[in-house]
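Researcher: Next entry: Vesicle transport through interaction with t-SNAREs 1A (Bos mutus grunniens).
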Amino acid sequence: MSSDFEGYEQDFAVLTAEITNKIARVPRLPPDEKKQMVANVEKQLEEAKELLEQMDLEVREIPPQSRGMYSNRMRSYKQEMGKLETDFKRSRIAYSDEVRNELLGDDGNSSENQLIKLREERAHLLDNTERLERSSRRLEAGYQIAVETDDQAGDQRPGVEVVACELLETCQDDEQNKLARRCWKTSVTTEKRYREHVKGFGKQMLTWGRAPGF
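Model: Predicted structure:
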């Protein structure tokens, strides 16, 4: 029984030595060889796990009075296996970062540079968003003033279209211009509906024999 365990031990020692060597080589290999090496290490790690399972079964069949020594060795092997898996994960992360840098043409500080760039873009986006919101509020306020002026001044009013055009000229940013154009189109449509409504109301009043002062 112990001879079988020792045979598995020897196989495990040889296999883990090969895995350790390959893990160290992964980050330094060319892309094609790296991919193949990673797949090979994954396969050998599975083989090492199977050996540990076989060794564990052997230990369980050893008489209790002799099992302590083998149990201690098993704990050591499992710790070694855990370390190999951790080292392999780190190696794969380094491999992934290097491949990404090769594809993007970035240097070793690409991650930090990208983070800084993303922060700058986010700040710029927030600034533009605030500017658009302010412009939108100004346009809405201007439109409301124009409507109120129409109600109060009759034919002498400056007109919603004129106010919207003036507001459009004050928007310098491209995005603000787009927003202003949309608001201008909306205001023009509203003005047309307003005129049609007044015209229709006047005709209706005439049918009642009361001519409105429009």
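Model: Note for the record: The CA atoms of residues 194 and 200 lie 10 Å apart.
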